[in-house]
Each structure stands twice: as C-alpha cells, then as structure tokens.
Amino acid sequence: MTSKLTAELVGDTQLRVTRRFAAPPDRVFRAHFEPELVKQWMLGPPGWTMPVCEIAPVVGAQLHFRWDKSPGEGFSMRGTILELDPPHRSLHSEFFEVPGATETIVETRFVAEGTGTRLELVVTYASKEARDAAMSTGMMDGMESSYARIDDLFV
Amino acid sequence: MLEALREGPQSVATLSAVAGIAQPQTSKHLRVLRDAGLVGVTPDGQRRLYALCAEPLRELDEWLERYRTVLEANYARLEALLARDDDDRNASPTPQKKERTRDLQADSRTRR
C-alpha cells in the first residue's frame, strides 16, 4: 500500500508528497475542505482524535486543527487559505504549535489521472534551517505510535 | 557519488571516475559534503578514503519514514472514506449544503 505514497525532500527548502486515489479530483478536493469529511480521515496514528477541525473552501478562511492523544494532551495546527482553484489546486499557510516549528506554505494539486486523482503536496519552509528544525521537532514524536493495525483501516 | 559511497569507502580517483567529473571538481564536491557532515575522510596509506557518515542520513531517512507512515495512515482512511462515500451516493444523496453552513458558523464563532 505504501508504494502509492511518496515523500521526498526537494532542494533545500521543500518537501514533496504524492499519493494516488481512485476517486476523481472533485471528490478528493472536497474531502480536504469540508470539516465533516476532514475529521473522518485526518486523524494521524490509531488512538488519536481530532476534537477541533475548522476549515472552509474559501480564500481567507482560517484553519484550525487539533489532535489529541488523550483529552487535553496534543497539539494544534493553524493556517490560512491563500489561494483556491477548485478542484485543481490550493495554497495555504500552516503553523504547527509545537516547539521548533515555523510557518510553511503548502501547495496542494489534485491532478486528474485516468478516472482517479494524483494528489501532490509541496511544503515550502522559510529556509533550509527551518526545514531541518521541523525534522527534529516533537511533531513526529507526538504522533508516533504502533502502526500494526494500519491494515485494519482498509475496507 | 553518494550511491558509490553507500557501497563503502572510496578514493577521490574512484569517485571522480564514477561521477564522470574531474578530480578537482570531485574534491570540491566532497568538501561540501564534509562541511555538511554527510561524509568523513580517513587516511589509507598514501591516499585518503571518503566514507558516508551514516548518522545524519539515517536520521533523515527515519524521519521521512515516520512521516510517510503518519501520512499513509491518513490517506488510507481517506481512501476508505471515498469508497464508502461512493456507496452512500449511490444509495441516497446527503444534505451536504446544510452541514457546511453549520460548520462555517461554528468556525467564525471560534476564530481567534
């Protein structure tokens, strides 16, 4: 399953992720911008919850996501939608409220591929130093868990 | 060059041949890699051998691997949701508009 996903560093300041989906771009796009859909999948490792999920498919909309491992123990992400071209592309800022994190700009493309979608995410950090720092923050530590049950997620 | 170093310590001459660039350029490149802490050098008789410093690369690989795992957990759920959504849509249309309006109002109330 992981062969569908790629995540790699690009140059000094970027991180690029790609993932293919069987559903067409308009549906993958919607699942990224409607809170009632987002909070069903953007949960991180098993056992985490998403008590706050604020997002709207509108330029200027403020994003606020929060993930908890147990009540009150977790972290937030805030950001702003900067550009939107449904269902093809979006640009937003995001800031994880964890030590060492800095604001990043995320460009998301929903590219039609056959009857499905190739999702492309490019995360741009302010500098190489910022990217290095992000890779050593507790962001990942906080989300680390056992993924033994990951196959259960597939229906 | 990094690929060749993955196989073990190499001399400048070997790396120069592998990379297809002149030795002075190879040395210059190696200096950059050394400054970045990616490559170390040890004397071997008359020549010097360059080797990968495993630590930074391994840390990076581990970080990316964990990042992939967290993302894939999300995307696997999204994939399942889209598949389920497909079934729902075939069965009955959902009141999406109404839901969205309510969430937008919730969003504006809690905005800082």
Structural features, described:
The complex is a heterodimer of chains A (155) and B (112). Chain A has an eight-stranded antiparallel beta sheet with strand order 1-2-8-7-6-5-4-3. Chain A has helices spanning 25-33, 35-41, 128-134, 138-143, and strands spanning 5-10, 14-21, 49-54, 62-70, 73-85, 89-96, 104-113, 116-124. Chain A has a single domain (9-137), classed as START domain (Alpha-D-Glucose-1,6-Bisphosphate, Chain A, domain 4, 2-Layer Sandwich). Residues 142-155 of chain A have low confidence and may be disordered. Chain A is α+β, with helices and mostly antiparallel strands. Chain B is an alpha+beta fold and 112 residues long. Chain B has a three-stranded antiparallel beta sheet. In chain B, strand 2 and strand 3 (47-52) form a beta hairpin. The two termini of chain B are 51 Å apart. The chains are: A alpha+beta (155), B alpha+beta (112). The interface between A and B is large, with 44 and 35 residues.
